[in-house]
Fold each of these.
Amino acid sequence: MFERVNPATGEKLDAIAEMDDAAVEATLARAQSTFREWRVSSLDTRTALLGRLADAFEADKRRLAEIATREMGKTLKSSIAEVEKCAAAFRHYAEHGPSFLEGEDVAVSKGSARTRWLPLGPVLAVMPWNFPYWQVVRFMAPAIMAGNVGLLKHASITQGVAAALEEMVKKAGGPDGLFQNLAIKSDAVEKVIADKRVVAVTLTGSEGAGAKVAETAGKHLKKVVLELGGSDPFIVMPSADIDKAAEQAVTARIQNTGQSCICGKRMIVHADVYDAFAAKFFEAMKAVKAGDPMDEESDMGPLSSFDQRDTVLDQLGRMKKAGATLEFGGEKLDSPGAYMSAGVLTGVPRNADVAREEVFGPVAMLFRVTDIDDAIALANDIPYGLGSSVWTNDSGEQDRFERDIAAGMTAVNQMLASAPEAPFGGVKLSGYGRELGPWGMYEFMNMKTVMLPG
């Protein structure tokens, strides 16, 4: 059983039954059967479905958002924004998908050749709880457009969202079996990946989960895309707009109660502007209001679970033990929910193991650096390489950061955010492969070469 608990109150919502072997088998059989039909469906059929999905998400955004907020605690306003972003992704692929699937003529020495993009089959998505709709839709929308079918293994705490996603595809007129929720736990994933009907896997989650999925997929020679953790640098140089940088740094750190892979976690600030930045950053972080996620006045809700809050508190304890100073915040709040206050750590030893971990909560690490070389060295001194944000109005510095920061994405003078149009993914232990744009669609397609006589 999946027990759902509201992290804002500690109240048990309900329990959802886990699929047995027979139900999993029936789900896989439907996926395979539906793929035979969907792979040859017209582009007009696919784009029309995506358009209806966009309309359905917009029309039902309040109900969908409330499910996510009750299950994992993000503020209702951010849940609504997430659902709206999903609708935009459906529209993006409906509008641009047909052009993404156009083949190309290829010059060859004899005769002629061209390429065709063809679907592969049922793709399994193993998804996390932090953006429970968006993480799924950025796989679902291109998969549907490509002619694939989707299987979702969602996080245990967001099974209500998982059921709602399957329901929405059916309501929009998607054929039975096009997108199905696999209500299984992690220990059942290996068997599904091994099943010959599943052709590929995409996972967003922890480094450990990614390694296990990649090992199983590799054993069975199946394609896998991994979007794993990140401890993104947020670098501020002397030429930056300090007021804007400090404001955006707060948003980056408390968005989704600090539970976002790509928002700045390590604030790396040049010595010349460190004091000015710190003063503004501290003041704004101290003003962050944690409270009822259904309340419009709350800046952030609880963490997703009591276990997640305890994990963050343990990390803070180890940082302090290593010599860091907790300037303020980072404490449990007197509440029945999984709340903690926003906080800032300074003086974190660069060589401490815990300084290289991802802190998935509303606490920032603040570092002082001497120059751009020092900033880049510190930014790269972690095992991850997902995103980064750099603040500078010096074109030479901007070029250095774009070239030398080891990350899949760099935002300049803004907080990093994903967009349906742009490739999303990382390097190093942050995973491999890309989502979104045409690149995300191509990850799970066969680029077939067709050789023709002259």
Amino acid sequence: MRIVLVGPPGAGKGTQAAFLAKNLSIPHISTGDLFRANISQGTELGKQAKSYMDAGNLVPDEVTVGMAQDRMEQADAEHGFLLDGFPRNVAQAEALDAMLDREGMKLDAVLDLEVPEDEVVKRIAGRRICRNDSAHVFHVAYKQPKAEGVCDTCGGELYQREDDSEGTVRKRLEVYHTQTEPIIDYYKAQGLVATISALGQVDEVTERAMRALHGRGDQAA
């Protein structure tokens, strides 16, 4: 299957993408991984992206599209892929359609993870990270440490990242609503969108997603 995963920040896209890709035996292709790989490998696209990022500018769509195309042309993506973070706007969605059309391929489904805005703010603004190891993550509501402000694993100080403040989260949501959310209507016009609730336990959301995708796969067949 060829799938696009869409949802606001805090919807759990990365977590669900990893589970879904494993269950479907297709590669998980995330924008973050694409940028890191191209920059670390010093590819031409990576150099271009880095020059924009170092200057504090947004990376142009054509650079992001080029990275995605290179990745989708690799052997492990021959029979499908799950795109996470791409396309990020309608122009990128149109470029993806054109790219697939040239190869005689098409998307099978666009999975829209739906989360109420207040829940997104609660999820992200409640995160607390260990200063000693950013992999140690806690939450004021969902995963409280045994001692307030202290990492259970190493005893390090827990803090809230600036990017996780409520004001920053709401700005990120505004960007999502303005730039990315319109691709949902774009793909709805093609009959590709399956919207599921991203509330509940991780495995519950994965199960909903798999049911929705199997339904799309049956329609595609």
Amino acid sequence: MVSNSAKEVFIQGVTRDGKTFRPSDWADRLCGVMSQFRPGGPQPGSHLTYSPWCVPTVINGVKCVVVNSELREAEPMAWDFAINFAKDNDLQVAEACLLPDPPKP
């Protein structure tokens, strides 16, 4: 489903048959569960912020979760959890690289 060379995986809030995935806060929930998995391990208060390895975002009006491949190397079971979440819920997954927004003039 996901190649080993992917730097980032985008789990999209759209099922393979094109339906919007519910509940509407699914991305925040998934990233909340994954918040403890971060560089250096969990720290006091780290449950209050998202992990840099698993971040919710909106792309072209579609809620997504961007999962960084560093998670796979540091915490393989957490990586499997995120990828299997997408698979179990029949969500569309894309391999890509999130680019920063261009600077504003």
